[in-house]
Amino acid sequence: MTKPFLEVLSGRKQAVPPIWMMRQAGRYLPEYRELRAKAGNFLDLCFTPEYATEVTLQPIRRFNFDAAIIFSDILVIPHALGRSVRFEAGEGPRLDPLDTPEKIAALASHADFAKLEPVFEALRRVRGSLDANTALIGFCGAPWTVATYMVAGQGTPDQAPARMLAYRHPQAFEKIIDVLVENSIRYLVGQLEAGADVLQIFDTWAGVLPPREFARWSIEPTRRIVEGVRQQVPGAKIIGFPRGAGASLPDYVEATAVDGVSIDWAAQPSLIRDRVQNRVAVQGNLDPLVLIAGGTALDRAVDDVLENYGSGRLIFNLGHGILPETPIAHVEQMIKRVRSFKA
Ligand code: CP3
Question: Is 23 a catalytic residue?
């Protein structure tokens, strides 16, 4: 059997675009909330293979998406590097800030991969439960985005602490990035060996960087990860998500050699078609807010994505993660409309 999702990434457009959603396992699903409550804390949910497998499969059972994404988080790498990572209810992640050259000098070079073994085990289990048409996605955070949380110790509105550290102490900041590059390569290769078909690299905060910094801290580390993974797994399929990259997307695609790129809802359709989709698959880009709004606004927005990108290689997705307030009926409405698309 062929997987439509992999076909698109391999250069073969599908008449009906394959579909999945970033953050498709999560709080908008009652069955997720139930298991989340049972697991206690979020990292226990990620690191208990039985739970992580179940949560990964929940959206597949409900919506029959074309791809499952392994349930984990981008902050499991800092955790495995020995940094303290906690998820406070309703507040998001909390880490011990890594914000001085002295602290950075003491950062471990190698993650403890035994801590990540439950993620690999969950991948093996999910692999065994998926049908032959459904792809399995492994992922990591891009070094820049992971570093923004490690430096600040939490999410920030403008990623100022990491940007400032990169200006004031570029060599120290580079050490964080280098450690993340090397460990992300190993983590991603481990995910492929455990059964992932495809990898996605999430650079959620790429869009705050000026062009020179974007080239240095987003493009270059991602390029090294792609190259490092393919040295060990030739032909590995990789999707990049430099959120907010805007007019820098063609440079990102060319330099990193990704097979596909996830675009946010502010992307300019003609730029994407002429300078991105002509080279790689495009994934996106419905506004998660219109999925909450529903009704005719949702139908129109789905049609816009299909009209803008449906004549080329498209993987239908949101422009960022689904929000917890999203009604399930609206997800169903979106999927039905995408699957009845005729190019
Ligand atoms: O897509 C999926 O369904 C797979 C699972 C997944 C999670 N996080 C689970 C999660 C993926 C791919 C991520 C990626 C991630 N994590 C990113 C990059 C993508 C993006 O959405 O921007 C980032 C920046 C993080 C860091 C992170 N994890 C934050 C900022 C938060 C708190 C905010 C929030 O959404 O709650 C998390 C927690 C988190 N990761 C949750 C889930 C389902 C919610 C935790 C809970 O259930 O209490």
Answer: yes
**In terms of CATH architecture, what is 4-339?**
Alpha-Beta Barrel (3.20)
Q: Write 84-93 long-range contacts (CB < 8 A, 24+).
A: 85/43, 86/41, 86/43, 87/41, 87/42, 87/43, 92/154, 92/155, 93/149, 93/154, 93/155
Q: Whose CA is nearest to atom 11 of ligand 1?
A: 73
Cα–Cα distance, 270 to 258 (Å, whole number):
20
167 is catalytic: no
Scanning the chain, the segments in alpha helix (DSSP H) are 4-9, 30-39, 42-47, 49-63, 76-80, 101-105, 117-129, 143-152, 160-168, 170-193, 211-213, 220-232, 249-256, 269-275, 288-293, 295-309, 328-339
Q: How far is the CA of 60 from the centre of ligand 1 (A)?
A: 18
User: Taking all residues of the chain, what is their mean pLDDT, rounded to a whole number?
Assistant: 97
Active site residue 223: no
CA of 230 to the centre of ligand 1 (A): 26
User: pLDDT band at 251, cuts 50/70/90?
Assistant: very high
| Contact status, residue 322 vs residue 22, Cβ threshold 8 Å | yes
Domain ranges of the chain: 4-339
Cβ-proximal residues to 240 (8 Å cutoff; 6+ apart), any chain:
142, 200, 201, 203, 222, 226, 252, 253, 256, 258, 260, 261, 262
What is the per-residue pLDDT across 258-279, written as a single tens digit (0 to 9) for each? 999 999 999 999 999 999 999 9
Q: What residue's CA is closest to ligand 1, atom 32?
A: 92
Give the mean model confidence (pLDDT) for residues 186-204. Answer: 98
Give mean pLDDT, residues 12-22. 97
Question: Considering 32, 36, 51, 125, which one is annotated as catalytic?
Answer: 36
pLDDT digits (tens, 9 = 90+) for 22-62: 999 999 999 999 999 999 899 999 999 999 999 999 999 99
